[in-house]
Amino acid sequence: MELNFGKNTYEGMWRLRENLRDGNLYATHGLGPIAQLMNINHGDQMAYLSSLSSADFHMGARAEALAAEDAFYAPLRAKPTAET
Questions:
Q1: What residues contact residue 82 under an 8 Å CB cut-off, 6+ apart?
Q2: CB-CB contact of 9 with 56 (8 Å)
Q3: What's the farthest any 2 CA atoms get from each other in the chain?
Q4: Which of 2, 5, 62, 73 has the least C-beta neighbours within 10 A?
């Protein structure tokens, strides 16, 4: 996880910004090996795929803590929503 918070690790900290927003970055990441094990796409195929995600429970808190210590991380602070 620390690589995501490195100041020079990713251009514009794109990876961290993507991880802090809602959504699954790699919805089909594990699908290839499972499809091979299940012999999918060898005479049959998937008709659709659903992906679910949950709230961020870890990285947002780390970003908040870093922003309190270092102004560099201030733009990564959570934006207020209608729920907060």
A1: none
A2: no
A3: 56
A4: 2
